[in-house]
Amino acid sequence: MSILLLRELHEDVRRLMVAGASMAMDDTRLKRALPQLQLLGEKAPIFKRVAEEVSSTTESRPEHAAGKLLDLAVLLQAVLHTQSSTDTPGEVVPVGTTQSRQAGTTITYRKLKPLLDALTLRGSGRLEIIRQGKEEGSFADLRTYFPAVLALRDSYAEIADYVAVHVIPALGKAVIPVLQHAFNRDGNSGDARILIARYKLSDNPEELWPLLSSVAKEAALPVRLSAISLMSDSPHFQKELLELSYSRKKEIREAALNTLSSWTSPEIDDRFMEALMGKDAEFALWPIQVSDSVPLTEKLLDYGRSLIEKSVHDSHVIGVRENLARVLHGLKPRADQPSVIAFLLKAMDNNELEFKGTESLSGEAANLLLHSNDKNALLYLHELRENKAYFIGYSLKAALHIYDSVQVYNMYEGYFTTKKSKYVSDLLQAVYQYAENPLISISFDNQITKSFSWDERWVDRFIDLNEEELVCRIVKTPSEKVIAYLLEKAKVSPQLLKPRTLHIFYALFRLGHRDTPELVLSALELATKKSYYYLDRDSQFIVAMLPNRYAEQVSMIADKITYEYGKNQLKQLAEHIASKPAEFVQNQEGAEFLSWIKSKLS
Amino acid sequence: MTELTAAYIDSLALNAGAIKNGNDLVRKSSFQKLCCTEDGTLLFGECKGSGKEPYICSADFIKPELPVFRCSCPSRQFPCKHILGLMYAYASDKPFAVEELPTDIADKREKADKRDEKKKETIAAPASSESKKKVNKNALAKKLAAQLEGVELAHKLVLQIVQTGLASLDKRSIRMYEDQAKQLGNHYVQGLQAAVREILILAVSAESIESIYSEAAEKLASIHGLIKRSRDHLIARLEDPEKPMDTISVLEEKIGHAWQLSELREVGRVRNDIELIQLSFHSYADEARGEYVDEGFWLQLQDGEIVITRNYRPFRAAKHMKEEDSCFLVVQTKDLYAYPGDMNVRVRWEEMTMREPLPSDRTAVRSFAEPCFAAAIKAVKNQLKSPLADKNPVMLLHAAQLAHTDSGYALIDGQGDRLPLATINRLKDATMELLPILDQESLIDAAVLVMFEDHIAEGKLVAQPLALVKERETIRLFY
Q1: Please, which domain of life does this record's source organism belong to (chain A) (predicted)?
Q2: Beta-bridge partners for B341
């Protein structure tokens, strides 16, 4: 009771400090406490002192009130500091997990603090710190767990994704309680990441299935979407997903359809077809493409036929073309199936894919047939050029699949007489697509298209047509004519180091032309004279092909560059050239050379 | 010699960048020469730098408690990355050629020995030097008078704030008060100045002025108490010039005195042959002082006293000063200088060696944990009631259990007494969130380092756990 009085008094003192000590004179609340304090003061001297301070505060002149008020505050604080309680009522519940713990707390402050700041604060350069921390094993420290989970909500998605993919899985099961604690179903995309992380770490995912079901139905949108994607784990979700695919939110419908493509069943096929025919046609396409369902192919074909039928009866039916285009897209991964090939051949033969006033779908169909790898289909395309000249590009491609390079040359060379002829641009387009671009295939390991061999006679033909890049692409054996042609072409502003120049240099290197290094060097020297910054990957590659003895010259060119980055880059390149293993000097086309050069280039 | 472990070398580096750069030199094999003397007291080598000539660096452990580093590079960071790299190379068992002691180092060692002897002489004969160090009485009187003036100035400032009320603090008045606080700098009362500025900074940084009323009011009262004590002390010293400085309480430091080690030695505040083990670490920016503060909380292995190291780095010079790090090794020092103060005194050392901690150290630490909360709380309250006292005492308690109750986490001692745990304003970072992910075994029968805070308005004394010491390991909940 008496402590309560002092606490109230302390509150009044605080109030007066806020309002200003000049108000303390005759303050009614202070005065009201006085008699009680005096009464208590008879028993305990401390209250007597408080009472004295209170009365001297209220009685002092306004200009002295501040000092008195502070005296009273000092006294009250000293007393109250000894009176604070440490009561902690209630039942005692043990904390901690029953699992054993691996992580310790042995990372030093100077390592830990920047990492925790990177995970929890804002600003630039954080991802790098987090990456470094991961590499150094700093996440083995328990104190990173909460900040790491917090980082799943980072507004900078790259950090959140990095942590989700690399950090949280490495923390292991010990982080599950933290994830559980942090998860808020009504949250945002961070909670979606938390849900996925938690599910993937779980030993016993079945336990979380009820949660997935409920979250998929009601939660924040990103969380729902992640739950729906996780449902692909168990076929028993099929029914729920079918229901969700009718949701009012289109994102949910899309996610549900996508997840449904993990399985095949008549219900799912029907739902896909229903979606394809309805307003969700766009969403239905991807699941249909990835679905393994065999009956679905027939359903697509049936739908395609019905659409064709409609358009035959009435060529103005709205949307038929779009729907038919979707059917063709859906058939793409199924192009090797006989029924599909038959359908396409028939449709093309009967001109059922031509639409008045809009773009024809025959091109799409021809593309599908090219993908089918079916001999008859390819033959059909090859012969199509005779009836429908505008298909000649496809015919050439098909021919490349069926015949050898000499045959192809003999059959198609005649169409490449002059650039002015009607469909030559289609043909050239086809050649560009099917002739390998050597520089691109160096930069990107994967060869996107199957490579076809080309008859050497094409080189002359392309020189006549002045298609320098095609010449560069397919030329294999040196001849006076081709070298002269390329050298002539290389004279056009080599200092710009444009892709075309690089193609020519690479071709000359491959043909073993002796003066190529000099050409490259002089181009490089010219290039570095004017506003030069750095070399792109292809240019670096070409420079790196220079033989060892040119290292010093490259280094000298580098010395003249003023821009620091470009200078260092070229210097480094010179070092690489100097250190190039001898076996590559002769053979710069082998896979070993390519992997060596790739390891060196920045 | 201290064993050259990576952890020890890390602790010598000024900052994390230096650690990385030092290691990079080793990784890139930038050292053209790595040598050591036969007795292993000197490491020296040559390191490739950006210049033509390599840098010549050495680390001399002839006095293991005070290693001497030398490098010919122009870096302002010291020890530079070359010296660190040299030691990292040694720690990672790179081959070191055994060579004769270079003559220049031998000369330098000789000179250093002579210097040391001189120093020892002066320390050994304090009586005779007393006359030499005789204080200029006039100067002292002048300084005390200036300080007193400063105290009155601070007093006026505080009264002014209270007179007009905290509610009337606005940008303009705060600026005016700040100008006045600046004047305190001319009166040798840096401590008081910082205390006043703390309130002003609190008012500026607050999102709403209402949120800081309680804290500011408490602080004003504390300053008021400090001013009164300072005034009495200074007047007494002015009247009696023979009266010594206050070497018991923190008063001198709070007024603004920076104790020098020689002064501490003179007044007998040196402890001999001490081993310290760090239990927690805290680094923060003290805006009022304009300095970063690196605080280490240590336990003296001899008697279990909890002491604090404080390393101040002025914002302006922070780049070139050593950023302290948390320390996991045991520090051994012949002379530990203890500042005047109460519960957790500030300590410093000049020379030290380090050793790996042993399991027996943890046993010793645990044996010093206070098993009775009632006694601990009494001691804390006793300290808190003094207006000068540090409001956040740190103690090592023995908890039978860390548990959850209706009002949050709590420590429970052997008698079933409880101490509520909470995140305190002083630290701001939560540490209790780690408790649920610790294994249950770690949370029983643990020595717990806690920092107290009294929330006077709510009438609640709470503590925040900083570290748990178990037989097997130390778990640092904070840094």
Answers
A1: Bacteria
A2: none
Q: Decide if pLDDT at B132 tops 70.
A: no
Say whether B164 and A79 touch across the interface (CB within 8 A): no
Are residues A124 and A19 located together in one domain of the fold? no
| Judgement on whether residues A119 and A230 belong to the same structural domain of the protein | yes
Segment (H or E) for A586: helix A583-586
Model confidence at B103, pLDDT cuts 50, 70, 90, reads confident
What residues in B contact A112, CB-CB < 8 Å? Answer: 479
Q: Are A61 and A120 in the same domain?
A: no
Say if B154 is an interface residue toward chain A (CB within 8 Å): no
Residue B309 pLDDT > 50: yes
- Examine the pLDDT at A482 and tell me if it is beyond 80: yes
Among B357, B377, B402, which residue terminates a domain? B357
What is the CATH classification number for the domain harbouring A204? 1.25.10
Question: Could you tell me the maximum CA-CA distance found in chain B, to the nearest angstrom?
Answer: 75
CA distance B9 to chain A (A): 13
User: So what's the pLDDT on residue A318?
Assistant: 66
- Give this prediction's pTM: 0.75
Please name every residue paired with B468 in a beta bridge, in sequence order, or none if there are none: B448, B475
A13 and A155 fall within a common domain: no
Res B354 pLDDT > 90: no
Domain that holds residue A9: 2-81
Q: With an 8 Å Cβ cutoff, are A86 and B443 in contact? A: no
- Is position A446 within any domain? no
Domain membership of residue A463 (yes or no) is no
Rounded to an integer, the average pLDDT of B76-102 is 87
Interface touch B16/A114, C-beta < 8 Å: yes
Residues 134-153 of A with CB under 8 A from B: 142-143, 145-146
Query: Sheet harboring B97-98: ordered strands across?
Result: B68-71, B55-60, B42-47, B31-36, B97-98
Q: What distances in angstroms separate CA A32 from CA A5, A35, A322, A369, one per listed residue?
A: 11, 7, 87, 99
Domain end position, chosen among B57, B86, B101: B101
Residue A17 touches partner B, C-beta closer than 8 Å: yes
Domain count, chain A: 3
Which amino acid is it at B389? A
Cross-chain Cβ contact B385/A81 below 8 Å: yes
Average pLDDT over residues B270-290: 90
Q: State yes or no: pLDDT of B90 exceeds 80.
A: yes
A116 found inside a domain: yes
Kindly report the nearest CA distance between residue A182 and chain B, in angstroms. Answer: 11
- 8 A C-beta contact, residue A216 and residue A198: no
Q: Does A61 touch chain B (CB under 8 A)?
A: no
Complex ipTM: 0.84
Tell me the residue range of the domain where B425 lies: 367-476
Residue A438 lies in a domain: no
Residue B341 belongs to a domain: yes
